[in-house]
Amino acid sequence: MPTLGSLGEFGWLARLLPRLRWPARHHHRLVIGPGDDAGVLRWPVGQSLVATCDTLVEGIHFRRAWMPWEALGHKALAVTLSDCAAMGAVTPIAALVSLALPGDIPVNSVDKFYQGMNKLAQRVQVGLLGGDTVGSKRDIMVSVCVVGAGAPRGILTRAGARAGDLLWVTGPLGDAGAAVEILERQWRHRRSRPSAHSRHPLRVRTYLPLVRKQWYPMPRLAEGQLLGRKRLATSLIDCSDGLEPSVRILCQASQVGVELELERLPISAALRRWTRQRGTVPWEYALIGGEDYELIFTTAASSAGRVARFFPQARLIGRVLPKQAGVRGRLAGRTFLLTRWGYAHFRGD
Description:
The protein is of the alpha+beta class and 349 residues long. The protein has 2 domains: 4-153, CATH 3.30.1330.10; 166-337, Alpha-Beta Complex (Phosphoribosyl-aminoimidazole Synthetase, Chain A, domain 2). Helix content is 34%, strand content 25%. It has 10 helices and 13 strands. It has helices spanning 4-16, 69-85, 107-124, 175-192, 208-215, 221-229, 243-254, 269-278, 282-288, 304-310; strands at residues 30-32, 40-41, 48-57, 88-101, 127-135, 141-155, 166-169, 235-238, 257-261, 295-299, 315-321, 327-331, 334-337. The strands form 3 sheets. The protein has a 7-stranded mixed β-sheet. Strands 3-6-4-5 form a 4-stranded mixed β-sheet. A two-stranded antiparallel sheet has the order 1-2. Helix 4 crosses helix 5 (208-215). The longest helix has 18 residues, at 107-124. It is globular, with a radius of gyration of 21 Å. The two termini are 39 Å apart. Residues 196-201 have low confidence and may be disordered.
């Protein structure tokens, strides 16, 4: 089976570049596509350029043994698109992909990576404009930059929430965090007993709905665009770091406090099954699990009816308070401060 090392840099690029897809929807914007020193786009008149990037590092964000290559390609693009969704009425146009890989990786594996990325790009009509591919000594790193366009009045930020506003989330929380626990347990078991896979007591297939949320997150682009076009949200952020840290970031930007109703948090049936087996509580995964990529947004209290009409899957999970109230949770009639940040880079915890 050929490897990247056997093809070499230029052989690999000759194979890759014709496979990068550009959607017909944005064909009129493309001046120079992949293969030159830079891509060139025509920009919409009267719209702002919106740019964001995200990076996945092996050993920090994923393990190679944890996920299919196709899922890694999907997720690398999805998490960056989620940042676009969190900016409101933004249309992502093009993605640039930088990939660092060891030379002994089979070419077939990298093909699957780009197949996963291409599938999502086609689904959301984003063009792959190029990027960079370099060698690494051991680990994989992938960084994706997305550029998009948005009318200035439809762009939303984390600032803007006011005391008295309502706090919402677009979908279930905690699934992806539980999946990390499931995959980690399986990985450790396989390392300690490599010949005993079939006797492993935890079958990932049983919890596939949770694992798929970790492997194949879907950026809430349509929801973010609608929130921006309708000017419905007063503030907006995506739930990449877990509910508790994400709400804290939103509160800091808006200079407000929040009370979360933990009994209102949307929890999937699969997560409830997992927590019953583990003897844990589902809202704990929702608070600090991370990587759910749902949207968290605030609206004026008078807009509750419009939210229910436009976003029937959204769940009201709390209310915005004055800054001095801090970030707190409410469960079974008891109120308590929430103080955790979940995982943070560079701290080592």
